[in-house]
Write a structure and sequence with these properties.
By secondary structure, the protein is an alpha+beta fold. It has one domain. The chain has 3 helices and 3 strands. Strand 1 and strand 2 form a beta hairpin.
């Protein structure tokens, strides 16, 4: 089950359950749409995969399965990430 992480790992932007800006990779690394498009260029800095829009949990299920409360904030190391991004960004995520 998705954790529905509350913020962008890179910039700290709030990404509540109802956010249309939340993007996740296959391991649930969570970033805002702006960071994914303009900084990460669809390359996850943690696993090298791509991103998809995070689904929202129906309100009726949030009481039983709440969103994660603890933020995970780990801004990218721009210099180290540049190497990974250069190697991966022109390869389709499923072929990486």
């Amino acid at each position: 089950m998705l954790e529905i992480r509350p913020i962008c790992e890179n910039c700290g932007k709030a990404l509540p359950n109802e956010s249309e800006e939340a993007m996740i990779c296959t391991f649930e690394c969570t970033f805002c749409k702006d960071c994914v498009e303009n900084i990460l260029e669809n390359v996850c800095p943690n696993c090298g995969g791509g991103f998809e829009k995070r689904p929202t949990r129906p309100q009726e299920k949030l009481n039983k399965y709440p969103s994660k409360k603890e933020p995970y904030f780990k801004p990218i190391n721009v210099e180290a990430f540049a190497i990974l991004k250069k190697a991966k960004k022109d390869i389709k995520p499923y072929e990486r």
